[in-house]
Amino acid sequence: MAANEKAQAKGEQAKGKIKRVVGDAVGNESLRAEGHLEESKGDLRAAKEKAKDAVKPK
Predict the structure, then answer these.
(1) Among 8, 18, 16, CA closest to 40
(2) Residue by residue, what is the 3-state secondary structure of the chain?
């Protein structure tokens, strides 16, 4: 498992959360949706990496 992939997933999750919160605060529905999408993308990437770790022989 590449540490780079895990870091990228965490980065996407953080950026998405920031965009979502800012979108909520200023009432920008488009920014909120974009943030939610990016956060979900990071969640999926993290889940993929967890699955790869679980399947990897020790």
Answers:
(1) 16
(2) CCHHHHHHHHHHHHHHHHHHHHHHHHCCHHHHHHHHHHHHHHHHHHHHHHHHHHHCCC
Which of 5, 49, 8, 14 is closest to 35 using CA atoms? 14
pTM score, whole prediction: 0.81
Token representation of residue 26: 């200023």
Region 15-35: what's the mean pLDDT?
Answer: 96
The encoded tokens of residue 15 equal: 């950026």
**C-alpha–C-alpha distance, residues 39 and 10, integer Å:** 9
Phi, psi of 2 (to 5 degrees): -85, 125
**Can you tell me the distance from the alpha carbon of 52 to that of 45, in angstroms, rounded to the nearest whole number?**
11
